[in-house]
Amino acid sequence: MSEENNIFDYLLNENEKVTEKQRRIIEAAVEMFAENGYAATSTNQIAKRAGVAEGTIFRHYQTKKDLLLNIVSPMMAKIIAPFVIKDVHKIMDTPYERYEDFLRAIILNRQEFFKTNINVFKIFIQEIPFHPELKEPFIEHVVKKVSEKFALVVQHYQERGQIINLPPKAVIRFTMTVIIGYIISQHVIFSEKDGNHEEEIEQTIQLIMHGLHPKEH
Amino acid sequence: MSEENNIFDYLLNENEKVTEKQRRIIEAAVEMFAENGYAATSTNQIAKRAGVAEGTIFRHYQTKKDLLLNIVSPMMAKIIAPFVIKDVHKIMDTPYERYEDFLRAIILNRQEFFKTNINVFKIFIQEIPFHPELKEPFIEHVVKKVSEKFALVVQHYQERGQIINLPPKAVIRFTMTVIIGYIISQHVIFSEKDGNHEEEIEQTIQLIMHGLHPKEH
Amino acid sequence: MSEENNIFDYLLNENEKVTEKQRRIIEAAVEMFAENGYAATSTNQIAKRAGVAEGTIFRHYQTKKDLLLNIVSPMMAKIIAPFVIKDVHKIMDTPYERYEDFLRAIILNRQEFFKTNINVFKIFIQEIPFHPELKEPFIEHVVKKVSEKFALVVQHYQERGQIINLPPKAVIRFTMTVIIGYIISQHVIFSEKDGNHEEEIEQTIQLIMHGLHPKEH
Amino acid sequence: MSEENNIFDYLLNENEKVTEKQRRIIEAAVEMFAENGYAATSTNQIAKRAGVAEGTIFRHYQTKKDLLLNIVSPMMAKIIAPFVIKDVHKIMDTPYERYEDFLRAIILNRQEFFKTNINVFKIFIQEIPFHPELKEPFIEHVVKKVSEKFALVVQHYQERGQIINLPPKAVIRFTMTVIIGYIISQHVIFSEKDGNHEEEIEQTIQLIMHGLHPKEH
DNA sequence: GATGAATGAGAGTTCATTCAT
DNA sequence: GATGAATGAACTCTCATTCAT
Fold first, then answer.
1. For D81-138, what is each residue's pLDDT tens digit?
2. B210/A176 CB distance under 8 A
3. pLDDT for residue B99
């Protein structure tokens, strides 16, 4: 699963003709963009860290922004992955009995992904507001499509009386918000790689599910 | 309340000797930092937007970073404000009967603050990961102190059996996470000034409270 | 007359706010563009020759091309000058008895101009084919307008039976061609500042006039 | 005659071992140098237009300048061609009765040459001022030798009273100037491939001959 | 012979900052 | 206090050239 999720492997295996140098450039860029931000990282620094000439970067990526987009764009496909039709169908065909189970399955699935790609994710989150090329497809393809699929799932469980009867949009926002908020709080405030993440994630799941428990008072 | 919360007024009234030009510099810098990011905004651009000479900026702020810190630092005092001892005591002395009420009071209080200072808040969120001068006092003074105070509040309501008996840290994280996540989702994805924010915030509050409802199953 | 014709004075007096450094930049750029060509001259070289920092160039001229255009554009107004309506009217009102006299007046008038601005003229000639921004207004304003006025003059003398009855366009092309060809041959082949230019120019005039003598055989 | 004059054929047939790729490189380089200038054309652009790898250029020509010189040097031999001793002897042995006939013969002979090699000629004219390697042999071998031969021709007709008794140098300069000026005016100002060139050239010839008509007034 | 990845010097340009006015 | 010309370091990016394959 690690390999399947790892953005490096995705990036670098997809396209067969990837040089060793190109790999080192991507690696260095990811590290430095995550650490200092895209705008505050110079191509000179990247080249030095990657152990290549500065010109080499521009042989593979036409501009610095190109490099950023090459790193960050696959994120979207990956984020969206578990919501691709066949997967959701799979979910629906062998349905989790409870929303709780569905949620746990999704989060555990994404958890590995976030762990593996925490740096790329940081960059993604940081740069999205400043690049329309990133923002527009993100809203169009990720937010909208995931919302649609997710809405179906939510309705599925709402019809079974398992979760609260708020508008699906609000339910989704709440669910996502807690998850994303959790991840961002990690990266913005603590940037820690230690800590008992599993337990905290489990608590988070519990709170979400509790929050969505159908009202009976 | 608006005035009391507005960071500009805070910034600009505190220090009596604030010239018209200085005000325009701050205003321009806030707009541009929020729009394009700190690193991608040049002092030249700020000067032009503010209608002052580039040198004037450096007469008031020794470096560009100084300007950033001057804009963003008061945020911390402001964020922390409602949790300052006397205020919490006030809360506790005339206690809200339910955690729900406490939460709503806090959020309504902060809501105006976020609305008024959305741009400064954006900058704050964006730049915190890259500036230790910002990050350290934020964790030390904001996160830690607010957590401590908040923990007392949480315990207060836990003792009264109103909210779930998870570790206060988890309860706080959940509460904050939902709120912060909500705001960030606004700013990252939609950056919209329209929309029925009041209703969405109320839904969010409902979900938080529900999520923290003590288990009885 | 020298002052009136000198492009530097034109350039630098027109706009009152011209720094000493700016003057040195223009001077250095003209020398180096003429010597090595625009594309083969680096802004670094110009800065060094001018004794200023490289950044200073870009404070005054937004791009290197801007610098070129600033040097070369006034050429057009200057070239066109003697053909501006009032001047031609003046010529026609106190008409030169012979085309020969008109020609000599024009050439003597331009001679000083070419001498004084030989370097700018070199640059102009060299760069015109590669810059549409230069080429289009040159054809539109210089070639066309001068041709129109010149055609009137030619017809004037043709009607008086002084010059050959070829289409004015051909007469003009011939006259201009000889003059321009003369100057270019100087600059391309000899780039000499010595030599008995006056006599050679007089011979050139003689040959033009002779060539245009009405056929009587 | 076309083949005899075409510089490509000259260039490419001379040396038997000219690959297809080499041909494409020369072709591409000529087009781009003529269009954008030597200094403003990158070897990368040439390689792309030629459909070869950048390295291939340097396999055939050690430097970019080498490529230029290889394109442009044969021009000299070609320009000089009709004045090479045996040819002039041929001219003198079967002498044209009038200078007019000689001139027309030369120009018609050169006309085809210019048409066929207009691009190489453009490059030649453009680059001569900036490359001593080009300029010196041009003056030494082309200008001087052609002048000498031409002077003999001029004296030949002057002795027969057919052309004006100015110094041969002036006569030559005038003749050449009109022709070169004509071509340059085409390339600098109009770069047109349409238009009735034949007629215009004939007019030009007429004007030259007329200009050189011995004075009889 | 041909390739194209790699280079590092140097291109034009922008930058935060200084300082004389 | 305010200016804006000046700076030079640093930026992104391009260049002609090399060389292992």
1. 766 655 555 655 556 788 878 877 777 777 777 777 888 988 998 999 899 988 888 8
2. no
3. 81
Looking at C47, C66, C85, which one is the last position of a domain?
C66
Chain-chain contact of D207 with C203 (C-beta, under 8 angstroms): no
Residues C60 and C93 occupy one common structural domain: no
Higher pLDDT, residue A131 or D213: A131
Alpha-carbon torsion angle C100, C103, C105, C108, nearest 10: -120
Question: Do A35 and A113 have their domain in common?
Answer: no
Provide the pLDDT confidence category of residue C108 given band limits of 50, 70 and 90: confident
What CATH code is carried by the domain that includes residue C52? 1.10.10.60
* Closest amino acid to nucleotide F7 (CA–C1'): C53
| C-chain residues near D139 (CB < 8 A) | 189-190
Strand E, nucleotides covered by protein (CB < 7 Å): 1-20
Which residues of chain B have a CB within 8 Å of the CB of A130? Answer: 36-37, 40
- Is residue D193 a part of any domain in this protein? yes
Per-residue burial over A198-217, b if 16 or more Cβ lie within 10 Å, else e, is: eebbebbbbbbbbbbbeeee
| Domain count for chain C | 2
Residue A37, phi-psi category: left (phi > 0), alpha (psi -120 to 50), beta (remainder): left
Using the Cβ of C204 and the Cβ atoms of chain D, whether some distance falls under 8 Å is answered with yes
The per-residue pLDDT for range A158-213, each reduced to its tens digit, is 888 888 888 888 788 788 878 777 766 665 555 555 556 677 777 778 888 887 77
pLDDT, tens digit (0-9, with 9 covering 90-100), for B8-48: 555 555 555 678 889 999 999 999 999 999 999 999 999 99
* D11 and D117 belong to one structural domain: no
Q: Indicate which CATH number applies to the domain containing B109.
A: 1.10.357
Chain B residues with beta carbon closer than 8 angstroms to that of A176: 181, 185
Asked, for residue C217, whether it belongs to a domain, the answer is no
Q: Could you tell me if B47 and B90 lie in one domain?
A: no
Note the pLDDT of residue D26: 94
Strands (E), chain B: none
In chain A, pLDDT over 70 holds for what percent of residues? 77
Distance from CA of C140 to the nearest CA of D (A): 11
Residues B103 and B162 in one domain: yes
**Chosen domain end from C30, C45, C66:** C66
CA distance B211 to C37: 74
Asked whether residue D177 is domain-assigned, the answer is yes
Nucleic acid strand F within 7 Å of C60 CB: yes
pLDDT score, position A125: 86
C37 and C6 in a common domain: yes
Residues of chain B falling short of pLDDT 50? 1-3, 217
Nearest nucleotide to C61 (CA to C1') is: E13
User: Which residues of chain B does A170 touch, with a Cβ-Cβ cutoff of 8 Å?
Assistant: 200, 203, 207
Q: Are residues A41 and A83 in the same domain?
A: no
- Could you identify the residue whose CA is nearest to the C1' atom of nucleotide E6? A56
- Inter-chain touch B185–A189, beta carbons under 8 Å: no
The whole domain housing D128 covers 72-211
Residues D45 and D77 in one domain: no
Residue B217 inside a domain? The answer is no
